[in-house]
Amino acid sequence: MDIDTEREIHQLTLDAIVSGRLLAEDWLEGSLAPTGTAKALILETLRSLRERESLPHVDRDLIEAMGEQIRNALNEIRDGKGDAALSREVDLVWEQNQQVIEYANLACRWRRFKEAMIALDDRLAATRMAGLLLASVV
Questions:
Q1: 42 three-state secondary structure
Q2: d(Cα 7, Cα 19) in Å, to the nearest integer?
Q3: Helices (H) and strands (E) in the chain — how many of each?
């Protein structure tokens, strides 16, 4: 692996670690408590992300389950706001409900973490595939 590829993977890993830590800190310090069958797994993952330990154990299904928790909680307070917050930035300028603001900000952290994880996974897959393709040519 060349130095540029190593640097790119390092930067993508750093982005995923930082965005995961920020998501975990905001979630664990806030008022949103995970519910349902994924509760224990989400809490364990958030604690691990806060300590910068669990990236290899976070898969897309878990990320989506975390997003669903945020979406559902926000939709309960303001119908449709959770759906909007998980897909894009939402306008909070005139928002008075502190819980809506907290959950919308959490949704933003979640989106950034999801994007960082996808970018890292894509780059690692490309590196593996390039290695396989190059090996088959030789």
A1: helix
A2: 18
A3: 5, 0
pLDDT digits (tens, 9 = 90+) for 106-118: 999 999 999 999 9
Residues contacting residue 62 through CB under 8 Å, at least 6 positions apart: 38, 41, 42, 45
CA distance readout (Å), 41 to 54, 103, 121: 12, 20, 21
Domain ranges of the chain: 3-137
The per-residue pLDDT for range 43-75, each reduced to its tens digit, is 999 999 999 987 878 989 999 999 999 999 999
Q: Is the pLDDT of residue 133 over 80?
A: yes
**How many other β-carbons are positioned within 10 Å of the β-carbon of residue 77?**
14
Q: What are phi and psi of 93, to 5 degrees?
A: -55, -45
| pTM exceeds 0.90, yes or no | yes
Least Cα distance to 69 among 46, 49, 47 occurs for 46
Cα radius of gyration rounded to whole Å, the chain: 17
